[in-house]
Amino acid sequence: MIENLNPQQAWDFLQQNPTAVLVDVRTRMEYLFVGHPPQAIHIAWIESPKWQLNPNFIESVRQAASALDTPILLLCRSGQRSLDAAAALEQAGYSNLINIVDGFEGALDNNKQRGTVNGWRFSGLPWQQS
Fold it and tell me: Per CATH, is 2-100 categorized as 3.40.250.10?
């Protein structure tokens, strides 16, 4: 079963569970230039320029979290890619999966812009850019 937490709940979970792994599944460009939580491990779910699934995604997660019961939190832009990635990890046998709803940038507002309604950055949680 995949649990859903908002960004603040995810941050609190990370603080209380030092063995938890935070995986940022966005593209490399998003991770580097839009920003990311400082402790996030970048493993793209889909990557440009062809926008194909990363064939090494599961194996890369295994390198970061070999135990199938390791708490793994997944983050993307708005919560959908991370949910898809969590489902793939569940199929691979992982049992403690958490999707961060609203993602890093959050939902679109009435002006079709992100970052003004919800999400990791909107919540004032730690983040950095390259």
Answer: yes
